């Protein structure tokens, strides 16, 4: 249950901040954002604030911001349509009632001759066959009502496609950027909560029941030498311990100015098949400072980003196979392990996931943010946008490919974490 709660909180936060980035930059550009959704599938919860409906959906596999103009709007007033009009106090059309007109307090019913709800915002029509043709101005925030469902019209200047190339690029890029920013904030908070590891060979917290505690070492001890070899920093101490699993070591310890000798036998743990390393259950000493935490957050974010790109490069070059990829099952298993390590480990795992989400979304694949950015780059090079229907088809095919990849990765995870263990 703790693992499930952790996954819901972590993935919910990652998706929320990703989509929040899209929403903030889109609204700043003046784009009408119809929906801000966490998850896919049927709606579980929804409320509307201003022009945007905020929803939580059944399948927690992502989220989206539905911007006007990205997909077909579904608003069409053809000549001959008989519609009801409701006006605002200024005399402009506030609501256009397509059917079930008897259920509304309609002020005028007309037969549409022409309607422009994108540029001129005018409806022209007749009240009856003998009546004169009249034109009605339409409020830029007017509602189109069909089958009791209201949809706000989207004048062209409120649509995604009407904005400058830079505004659209920023609106798309803001999602991955927010995930990187979230990782930085989490890692900075982690260092404020846990402290920043120092480089000196001084012991911090000790794990109960492990070699460090059994040998009589204490928090705050500074290790001067191991088996007579001087130790100048934490990395050298760790190297000595890892290279001697199960071997008795003599630590020269400085404890508040008093020199002591302690015999320590590192425990053993397997890091690869047939390869073991030593450990004593000791963590480095830490210090607390806001500037140091900011620096730590930035450095760790950069380090994690580099390592993910290195792993991606090894995947592309074939150094690692696709069986190394993990999906929902893998995320559950790794989150379960992180949960056992407590909040500090969960925070670091959340940062790794957030950076992974950012980089994955920036891959130039259809249906991902990177794919959409690629189309914007092509538009910049050719001087005009690609046909929206063709782009939509590419994204649809890309989405189908991603779903297939998700199934393959999930099957790999099932083998890795369950079936292979049963065989063993």
Automatic annotation (TrEMBL):
Ranges of residues in domain PDZ: 189-257
Keywords of the record: Hydrolase, Membrane, Metal-binding, Metalloprotease, Protease, Transmembrane, Transmembrane helix, Zinc
Residues of the signal peptide: none
A Gene Ontology BP annotation from the UniProt entry: proteolysis
Keyword Hydrolase: yes
TM annotation in the entry: 170-193, 346-367, 392-411
Subcellular locations according to the entry: Membrane
Membrane topology (UniProt): Multi-pass membrane protein
One cellular component (GO) term of this entry: membrane
Entry-linked InterPro entries: PDZ, PDZ_6, PDZ_sf, Pept_M50_Zn, Peptidase_M50
Stated family: Belongs to the peptidase M50B family.
Name of the featured protein: Zinc metalloprotease
Organism name: Fictibacillus enclensis
